[in-house]
Amino acid sequence: MTGEGVMSLARGFTYAGVPSIITSLWKADDLASKKIMLAFYEELKNGQPKDEALRKAKLRFLEQAEGTDKSLPYYWATFITIGDNTPIPSESSPYIWLISLLVLGFIIFYFWKKNKQEVI
C-alpha cells in the first residue's frame, strides 16, 4: 500500500480553499512564536506582502535574540507561507484581528488537544 507522503493541517486548509496559510514545519517554541507572530501582524498591518511580513518578523526576532540560543533556526525558521502572498488590503484591516484570533484559537486548541492525548 502506498501513501500520500506527509500530510498536515495546511493541506486541509488548502483543499478547503484558503488562499494563504502560515504554517510551521515543526513544533514551535511558544515564546518565539508569540514574538514572531506579533511582529508578523504588525508588518501585515503596515501593508507588507505576507511573505515579506514574515521575513521581517523573523529578522526582528533574530535582532532581539542575537548572541543567545534563541538565535538558532529552531526558534525562528519553523514558519513558512503557502499560497497567495499579496498584501491584505487596508480596508479589510479590522478583519485581520478577527482572523488572527481565530487562527490563534485554532492553534491553541490543536496543541491543547495534542498534549491532552499525549498525557493519556
Layout of strands and helices, then pairs:
Elements: H1 9-15, E1 20-24, H2 30-45, H3 50-65, H4 73-76, E2 79-83, H5 93-119
Antiparallel strand pairs: 1-2
Output the radius of gyration: 15 Å
Order of helices and strands: HEHHHEH
Give the distance, in angstroms, between the N- and C-terminal Cα atoms: 30 Å
Q: How many helices?
A: 5
Query: What's the pLDDT, averaged over the residues?
Result: 83
In terms of per-residue confidence, which ranges show pLDDT below 50 for 5 or more consecutive residues? none
Based on Cα principal axes, name the global outline: globular
Strand order of the largest sheet: 1-2
Got a strand count? 2
Whole-number tally of structural domains: 1
Main sheet record: 2 strands, antiparallel
| Class by SSE composition | mainly alpha
Indicate the percent of residues in helices. 55-70%
Q: What fraction strand?
A: 5-15%
What does this structure look like?
With 120 residues, the protein is mainly alpha-helical. It has one domain (9-93). The protein has five helices and two strands. Helix 2 packs across helix 3 (50-65). The protein is globular.
What features would you highlight for this structure?
about 120 residues; mainly alpha; two-stranded antiparallel ribbon; 5 helices; 2 strands; about 60% helix; globular
Write a brief caption for the model.
This protein is 58% helix and 8% strand.
